[in-house]
Amino acid sequence: MPAPDPASLHPEDPAPVTGETLRGDDWYGRDLTGLTYTACDFYDTDWTETTGSGARFDRCTFSGVRFNVSHLTATAFTHCEFRRCSFFDARLDQCKAVGSTFDACSFRLLKVTGGDWSFTSFPRADLRKAVLDGVRMREADLRGARLDEAEVTGTDLSGALLAGVSLTGADLRGSDLSALDAHTLDRTALAGARIDPAQAVGIAVAMGFEVA
């Protein structure tokens, strides 16, 4: 009996793809493990229930792409553009989105755990009830974003742009809030937000109070 082909036992990752445009492709339920796309454009592609880990997308554009109920781990979307994409009930664990922008996207029930999302941009994004747990979001642009009732726990928001952000009822415990300027926020934008004692002291000091 012939010996099995070693390639069949340890298949290589798919070949990298560069500079392609994909329109209306159906990737429903696809395993994205090992995929590498660079400077590619995805238009109206269905990524519903996609899974996998270790995929890399660099300088790609996603327009009208549905990431609904997807569950991706250790996947990188670096310096990408997301326009009118849907992330309904998507789970992104230990993913990387450094330098990416999100414009007119929907994030209902989005859950992000860990990973590096520094220098991302979410202009006026509706992130109500989203979960951002242990995420690095240094210098992220969240101006005008709605994070009402969101769970933003253990998240690094140092240097983030937070002007006009709404945090009503949000859980902010354990997050770095050093970029939050309570003077510039409407009081209602912080109503019911939960913080821990250390955060309370930091905010009080920033507002000029002397904590004895």
TrEMBL record:
Residues 1-20 are annotated as: Disordered. It holds the Pfam family Pentapeptide. InterPro entries: 5peptide_repeat, Pentapeptide-BTB/POZ_domain. It comes from the Bacteria. This is Pentapeptide repeat-containing protein.
